[in-house]
Design brief:
The complex is a heterodimer of chains A (about 300) and B (about 200). Chain A has eight helices and nine strands. With about 300 residues, chain A is α+β, with helices and mostly antiparallel strands. In chain A, strand 1, helix 4 and strand 2 (about 130-140) form a beta-alpha-beta unit. In chain A, helix 1 (about 10-25) packs across helix 4 (about 90-105) and helix 2 runs antiparallel to helix 3. The longest helix of chain A has 20 residues, at about 45-65. In chain A, about 50% of the residues are buried. Chain B has about 200 residues and is α/β, with parallel strands linked by helices. Chain B has one domain: Fe-S hydro-lyase, tartrate dehydratase beta-type, catalytic domain (fumarase), CATH 3.20.130. A five-stranded mixed beta barrel of chain B has the order 2-3-6-7-9. Chain B has a two-stranded antiparallel sheet with strand order 4-5. The chains are: A alpha+beta (about 300), B alpha/beta (about 200).
Chain lengths: ~300, ~200
């Protein structure tokens, strides 16, 4: 019996390099469907014009194999690591970093990463604590799922946190989400996905909001109480009239996704993280033997 | 809502004065790419821009490019960034350098309305994120200055049928963004009452 040694770190690196470029060029079908529904629903002349241009742009990116949006973002990955996956997360992180760098240099892609004080560009879209990786560990499993979400700055700049108090209740959460999206206006490239994180702590609420924007468009939180809030906020946000690109209209958001965590009895945090209409997302599923499948699930 | 075609840089201010908020505009000629660091260098560090900005159309951008040789770049993907971060430079761009149009996405806050009215400048709204399309309308990168700020250099692009753009703020004190915000703020009161 011969033993085949699989270079799993190399497989993760290749997957990261592929995911980053793929995500930037080819937006998921669930997003395409949501954008088509938005175009059908919009009644304002300017709003329809904006949505038609968005469709034309997506078609041109498909035809020319070009990036949908010029903002190559900061590379954010979510990893679901199986308990028995035979590569340690420390090595997974290193491979994701190298893969991000390779994609940036080989394509080439615009490098956005700078030192936060000196503002000097750090190189190929990586740097100190970049890329950003969210981790989830799965018992009794030997696989690895990697989701790449290149996050543009126009929408990331429209992130908001409020430490509501218990007496503010759910009403306080709703008001904060509404005022945040109206305040953001056209800046985050609406219509996009409003990610809301509730509960946990200040930092965790924002982490959850970022998880929420990266879900397939229109999926619902498994907790029916939270799912009901998603439906309600989705409806309310589209009554604000901000419209496509903030120029006025019926469609302000494509969706509202909420992730939640239990919290302290005296806490009621709410975080909002915006995802622009170019909600780029791509996923790789790695098996322990090094085989890889690509899709947009999770 | 009228449609116009304007060639930049403009020499006749009437080309700008005729535009009204909500109108659609297609742009020909040359446009200048500029971003946060470029304007910080001009206004906060007092460095004179090595390009003539008289009558210019500025685009808020930082493109994806491939370097071909010294000072020569090929376009890969060119799109537009959020303007609001750079609103404080509006007065200086118009008064000191004669810029007549600023194009970006997401709009300028109300601070821009008065200087744009006084200095005869317009704000053009482009569809943010629609960079694949925008790239096809940029024929060539003709000149690049301040390469050390890559990708936030000063870029000179030759464009053909650039747009359609929507006049977001005109020279007559009208702003679509102001109007949308005013209506949305009023609507919020109604929505809050229903919660």
């Amino acid at each position: 019996m011969s033993t085949v040694t699989v270079d799993l770190a190399g497989v993760v690196e290749d997957a990261a390099a592929h995911l980053y470029v793929w995500a930037l060029k080819d937006i998921p079908q669930d997003l395409r469907d949501a954008l088509a529904a938005a175009r059908d629903k919009e009644t304002s002349t300017t709003g329809r014009r904006v949505l038609e241009i968005i469709h034309r742009n997506v078609s041109i990116a498909d035809e020319q194999k070009n990036l949908v949006c010029q903002d190559t973002g900061i590379a954010v990955y979510t990893c679901r690591v199986g308990e028995h996956f035979p590569l340690h997360p420390a090595r997974i992180y290193a491979a994701l970093k190298t893969g991000t760098e390779r994609a940036t240099v080989e394509h080439p892609l615009r490098s956005n990463a700078v030192h936060t004080i000196t503002r000097e560009n750090t190189g190929p879209n990586t740097g100190y604590r970049l890329p950003i990786v969210h981790w989830e560990f799965i018992p009794d499993w030997d696989g690895l799922d990697v989701k790449c979400v290149p996050k543009g700055s126009g929408s990331e700049n429209m992130s908001f946190l409020k430490m509501c108090v218990p007496a503010d209740g759910v009403k306080g959460i709703k008001q904060f989400v509404l005022e945040s999206i109206v305040g953001a206006g056209g800046k985050p490239c609406p219509p996009g996905i409003v990610g809301v994180g509730i509960g946990g702590s200040a930092d965790y609420a924002m982490y959850l909001a970022k998880e929420a924007i990266a879900r397939p468009v229109g999926t619902r939180n498994p907790d029916p109480v939270v799912a009901e809030l998603e439906d309600e906020l989705f409806g309310l946000l589209n009554e604000t009239g901000i419209g496509p690109m903030g120029l006025g209209g019926d469609v302000t958001v494509l969706q509202c996704h909420i992730e939640h965590a239990d919290t302290h009895m005296t806490l009621n945090p709410v975080a909002v993280n915006y995802q622009c209409w170019a909600a780029r997302r791509a996923t790789a599923h790695l098996a322990a033997d090094g085989s890889v499948e690509y899709d947009r699930e999770f | 809502m009228a449609s116009h075609e304007v060639t930049f840089p403009i020499t006749d201010p009437a080309e700008i004065l005729k535009l009204r908020a909500g109108d659609e505009v297609t742009v020909q000629g040359h446009i200048i790419g500029i971003r946060d660091r470029t304007q910080i260098r001009i206004f906060d560090q007092g460095v004179e821009p090595p390009m003539d900005l008289t009558g210019a159309f500025l685009l808020h951008t930082a493109p994806n490019v491939r370097k071909l040789g010294p000072g020569r770049y090929e376009k890969i993907c060119i799109g537009t960034t959020t303007s609001a971060r750079m609103v404080r430079f509006t007065e200086g761009l118009g008064a000191q350098y004669g810029v007549r149009a600023i194009c970006g996405k997401g709009g300028f806050p109300d601070d821009a309305i008065e200087p744009m009215h006084r200095l005869g400048m317009v704000y053009f709204a482009i569809v943010g994120g629609a960079a694949a399309l925008e790239t096809t309308q940029i024929e060539e990168i003709e000149e690049v200055a301040w390469e050390e700020l890559m990708p936030e250099c000063l870029w000179k692009f030759r464009v053909k049928d650039f747009g359609p753009l929507i006049v977001g703020i005109d020279t007559h004190g009208n702003s679509l963004y102001h109007d949308v915000q005013a209506r949305a703020t009023k609507k919020l009161e109604e929505l809050y009452a229903r919660l």
